[in-house]
Amino acid sequence: MESTSVKKSGGNGQVLDGSDIMELVGNQEVFNNFVDHKFQELDRDRDGQLSVKELKPAVADIGAALGLPTQGSSPESDHIYSEVLNEFTHGKQERVSKTEFKEVLSDILLGMAAGLKRDPIVILRIDGEDLLEFINGASYETEMVSIFSLLQSPDMSLHDHILKALEKLSVDQGMPPASDSWVMSNIVEPALRDCFNGGDHDKPVSQDTFLVEFKKVAEGVAQRLKEQPVIVAHSGNTFDGSGIKRLLANKFEWEKTLNTVVEAIPKDRNGKVSKEYLRVALDAVAPSAALPPVGAVEEMDKVIGEVFKMMEADDGKLVKEDEFKKLLAEILGSIMLQLEGNPISISSNSVVHEPLAKNSSLLEP
């Protein structure tokens, strides 16, 4: 189940759920015009085909839309850029026709739209208003005492306690990610300097002192956010088993999904399947069951590991196809019960340093 109930700071919140992309690709006339314009823009030598060099700006735009750092920043992101380019050239073509360009671009955009539909991104403008509301609100003392009790250490100065506490606040309290280098150097550090310019770094750290001094620093942070608002891309999900419940309740959809998944799994000469493929099958079913891919969410991997251990699903034994299907359904049912009792919530917040309208210049006409 998607969760985008985060407060929209200052009343400015934009949800990117893939609907704009779906609308673009779904309207044949509009999409054809869009492709014509992009192709002409990229086809510098006007030969009716795109060379690898001419494709690179489109690949860079796709990378930006996927939230990747610029090419050359890291081997991991460079591998993804390379894979996107290979999608266009099929790994060997030196030139790409307009038809091929359109087909691959459509596939990539629809993939991005599906991802955004599954995990919408909320674009927040954080301008200090929500932070001021939090530090002057009824829950301030309770929440900050809780944070202080987690952080309290005789080895840390008051300055360090306040810094660590700011890192614990989220966009719900009106705080952009303090771990971002720009936020740290332009917002957090100046606010701390202003409050500790008298050399109070080593003040004894009592709870009362912490509450008073933290509020002063937070007011400084709010003032700087008012002068320099920060744009944050927020995404969040709560996995509560409801997606599994929907899938298993719809017999037709479940059978169709199950048959598609099992057909692709290797079988021995007697048509039996090794139980070692249960994790592969679960990963293939995950999108239909509103579950994250295996390895994406640590807490979810722990739940899956416990279920597999309880059901002895990792013993690698060979079973008949029907037994394999039954086991997969039981594994999903068990995961559903675990999540219904203890839902897993995850969120991610990243600072957007460039204006983000419809994901990037990729979607600009």
From TrEMBL:
It comes from the Eukaryota. Keywords: Calcium. The keyword Calcium applies. Residues 30-65 form the EF-hand domain. InterPro entries: EF-hand-dom_pair (IPR011992), EF_Hand_1_Ca_BS (IPR018247), EF_hand_dom (IPR002048). Coiled coil: none annotated. Pfam families: EF-hand_7. PROSITE patterns: EF_HAND_1, EF_HAND_2. GO terms for molecular function: calcium ion binding. PANTHER family: CALCIUM-BINDING EF-HAND FAMILY PROTEIN-RELATED, EF-HAND DOMAIN-CONTAINING PROTEIN. This is EF-hand domain-containing protein. It comes from Erythroxylum novogranatense.
